[in-house]
Amino acid sequence: SVIINRVTSNIHRPPYESDGKTKSGKLLHLMHALEKTIINDTECLIAITIDITDKKRATKALKESEEKYKFITETVEDVIWVMDFNTGMFDYVSPSVEKLRGYTVDEALAQPAIAALTPESAARVTEMLGENLPLFLAGDESKRLTMVELDQPTKSGGIVPTEVVTTLMLNEKGEASKVIGISRNITYRRTQEQRRLNALLLL
Length: 203
Description:
This protein is of the alpha+beta class. It contains 5 helices and 9 strands, in the order ββββαββαααβββα. 33% of the residues lie in helices and 37% in strands. The protein has a 5-stranded antiparallel beta sheet with strand order 6-5-9-8-7, with helices on both faces. Strands 1-4-3-2 form a 4-stranded antiparallel beta sheet, covered by helices on one side.
């Protein structure tokens, strides 16, 4: 709504918000603004009130969603990451990368994604991608998601075995654009498997 009054004093106030209610009792979030103007040679003050209830609700919902997402990515032990398919660099790496590989988020983001794999695992990924990507681009949705065990180098010079689940994403042109992945430490699983194998060899 807009209310026009003749200026009687030098009034100036930046936009501000307030709460209000409708006749039925519905709560409203309002934004108000004051603006000077000339109408019929008379200096007037225009008071503008805008209903921002829906915007406030959307902003609150977005904030809550972001907080939940942040909580998940910062507390899970699995490393969640997003790689740009064209640059071969990470767009995002969750903080758990430091526990898995010893690198901080900033350090991981500064490295090519291929640096997160041992040479043998990198060669395996290149081979799989060469086989799966053409099929996926041709419409085979079964090739969108893959799960593979890969070895990743740590900052201290060690090797950590991981199970990596990746999802290929396309842009609006139907081209491969992003890879979303989740890397899980499977050291314990590998250790148990080796123990069972050793026990069988002793029989």
